[in-house]
Amino acid sequence: MSKLYDVIIIGAGPAGLSAGLYAGRARLNTLIIEKAREGGQIVNTADIANYPGSVEGESGASLIERMKNQAKQFGAETVYDTIIDAELSGEIKTIKGLADTYQAKTLILANGAQPALIGCPGEKEFTGRGVSYCATCDGAFFEDLEVYVVGGGDAAVEEAIFLTRYARKVTIIHRRNELRASKSIQEKAMENPKIEFMWDSVVKELSGEELLDTMIVENVKTGERREVKADAGDGMFGVFVFIGFKPQTQLYEGKLEMENHYILTDDNMRTGIPGVFAAGDIRAKSLRQVVTATADGAIAATQAEKYLAE
Ligand code: NAP
Fold first, then answer.
1. Ligand 1, atom 23: closest residue by C-alpha
2. How buried is 178 (Cβ within 10 angstroms: 0-12 exposed, 13-18 middle, 19+ buried)?
3. Which domains does the chain possess?
4. Which of 98, 195, 207, 245 has the fewest beta carbons closer than 10 A?
5. Regarding beta strands 4-10 and 101-109, do their DSSP bridges make them parallel or antiparallel, or are they unpaired?
6. What is the DSSP string of 236-300?
7. Which is the closest atom of ligand 1 to the Cα of 154?
C-alpha cells in the first residue's frame, strides 16, 4: 500500500469500465480492481445485438476489450486481486485484497451479480451453446426453435413470454406444481398458445455434440427421469435459466442499505455512506443490461468527481 487514489472501482464489468473511463477522463487517480478477468457476465454472450451502436457480430468479449482499452487510454490503472474486506466509512476508504491493501477517497462498487445456476452436469459447458441466462441478449438466436425456461418466478415467466417472439414453443420447467410469479404474469403465460409447462420437474443433465441437444429432466414427486431430445430438423434447443440472481454484495452486508441483497442507491448512484457509490447489476434496479450498467458507471464517476471537488 503506497498510493492514495481519488477513486477505486471494484469490478471491471461494463459498469466498472465505464466508471473507469469517466473517472480517468476527469483526471482522477483511478484504480480498477478486478478479481480475475474483465467483463463480468457479458463476456459469455456471443453476439451483442442490443447495445446501441454495437457492430454486427460483436461479441461480449470484443466489446469489453474496447471498453478496457478506452479506460486505460484515459489513465485508469487495473490490478487483479480478490477483495476480502472493505472499510467504507471515514474519509479514506481501505480495501483489503489477498495480494495488497488499497486506499482511496471514493469508492465505486461495481462487482455485479451472477445468475443462480442449476448446478447440473453440462450447464457450464453449454453456456453460450444452448444454455443462456439472458433472454433479451440471446432470444433471437432461437428463432423457430424449441426453448425450455427453468424457474417459476416473475423473471422466468416474463422471459418465457418474451421468448415466444422467437421460439416455436417455450416449455417452462418448474420444480413445483404452481408458479411463484405474480398472478397477472401467470395469466398472460397460461393464455399464450406457445407456452407449455413441465411441472414438479428439475433439470438433471444437459448435453450435446457442439450445441445443446439433449436434457435429462426428473419428476421430483415420482423420481422418474426422461430424456428430452432436440427435433432432428432443429439439431438443438435452448435452455434459459431464471432461478434468481446472486448479487456479489457479501463484502458489504451490514455496511450498506440493501434490498434482497442488492445495494440501494439514489439516482446519482450514491449509497448511504458519503464517498461510496454503487453501479451496475449490484444495485437494486429494474433493468440489468450493459446499457444501464455503463450509464450507472458514468453517473457514479461523475458524482465521485463532484464529491471530491466539494
Ligand atoms: P425468484 O422470484 O426468487 O424466483 C426464482 C424461481 O426459481 C422460483 O420459482 C424458484 O422455485 C425457482 N428456483 C430457485 N432455485 C431453483 C433451483 N435450484 N432449481 C430450480 N428452480 C429453482 O427470482 P426471479 O424470478 O429472478 O425474481 C427476482 C425478484 O425480481 C423477485 O422479487 C421478482 O418479483 C422480481 N421481478 C419482478 C418482475 C416484475 O415485476 N415484472 C420481473 C422479474 C423479476 P420456487 O418457487 O419453488 O421457490
1. 244
2. exposed
3. 4-115+245-309 (3.50.50.60), 131-241 (3.50.50.60)
4. 98
5. parallel
6. --EEEE-S-EEES-GGGTTTS-EETTEEP--TT-B-SSTTEEE-GGGB--S--SHHHHHHHHHHH
7. 25
**Helix, strand, or coil (residue 223):** coil
Distance 179 CA to ligand 1 centre (A): 9
* Nearest alpha carbon to residue 35 among 59, 15, 9: 9
Alpha carbons 244 and 247: distance in angstroms, whole number: 10
How far is Cα 101 from Cα 5, in angstroms, rounded to an integer?
A: 12
Long-range pairs of 214-219 with CB within 8 A, sequence gap ≥ 24: 215/148, 215/239, 217/173
Alpha-carbon distance of 277 to 34, in angstroms, equals: 17
Residue 184: strand, helix, or coil = helix
Which uninterrupted H or E stretch holds 68?
Answer: helix 60-73
Model confidence pLDDT, tens digit, residues 18-73? 999 999 999 999 999 999 877 776 775 656 777 898 888 788 888 999 999 999 99
Single-letter residue type at 98: L
**Catalytic, out of 81, 85, 100, 134:** 134
Per residue in 154-188, pLDDT (tens digit) is: 889 999 999 999 999 999 999 999 999 999 999 99
Alpha-carbon span 3 to 28, nearest angstrom: 13
Beta bridge partners of 245: 115
Single-letter amino acid code for the residue at 125: E
Q: Does the annotation mark 120 as catalytic? A: no
Give the contacts of 268 (CB within 8 A, at least 6 positions apart): 277, 299, 303
Nearest CA to ligand 1 atom 48: 180
- CA angle in degrees (0–180, nearest 5) for 75-307-267: 100
CA atoms of 294 and 176, how far apart (whole Å): 37
Closest CA to 136 of 12, 292, 248: 292
pTM value?
0.72
Length of the chain: 310
